Task: inverse folding
């Protein structure tokens, strides 16, 4: 996954460095954890989210040009391989992106930065899909 290009200065700094990225990650997981609209995504995560929060924070630090905490701890991210044990379809992708969009909105980033981040995150989220599940609204009655 590559960070959005063409942002003046460091993307890591533009997002508030480690403190800003931690707030983004916490906003993401808080939204996912409390809003029933993201139940399918939430079920893919452990009951306790501290480890998930840390890993996403560490990953985003390096992805945005800051310290490479994730690589130092775990090696190359190998995102798709690490997520293959989980059924990730269109619904899960869209729920992940909606949570990230909500967390980005809460950070009140400039609109152009927000859109570039979301576009880059969409590319990776879409690449992570490993099932061909359809959105629940497209499924016949009684199928989820």
Result:
């Amino acid at each position: 996954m590559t960070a959005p290009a063409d942002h003046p200065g460091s993307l890591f700094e533009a997002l508030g460095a480690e403190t800003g990225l931690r707030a983004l990650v916490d906003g993401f997981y808080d939204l996912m954890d409390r809003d029933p609209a993201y139940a399918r995504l939430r079920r893919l995560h452990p009951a306790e989210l501290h480890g998930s929060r840390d890993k996403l924070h560490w990953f985003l630090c390096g992805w945005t040009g800051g310290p490479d905490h994730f690589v130092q701890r775990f090696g190359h991210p190998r995102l798709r391989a690490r997520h293959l044990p989980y059924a990730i379809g269109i619904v899960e992708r869209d729920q992940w992106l909606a949570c990230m969009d909500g967390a980005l909105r809460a950070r009140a980033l400039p609109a152009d930065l927000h859109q570039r981040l979301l576009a880059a995150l969409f590319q990776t989220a879409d690449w992570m899909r490993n099932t061909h599940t359809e959105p629940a609204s497209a499924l016949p009655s009684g199928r989820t």
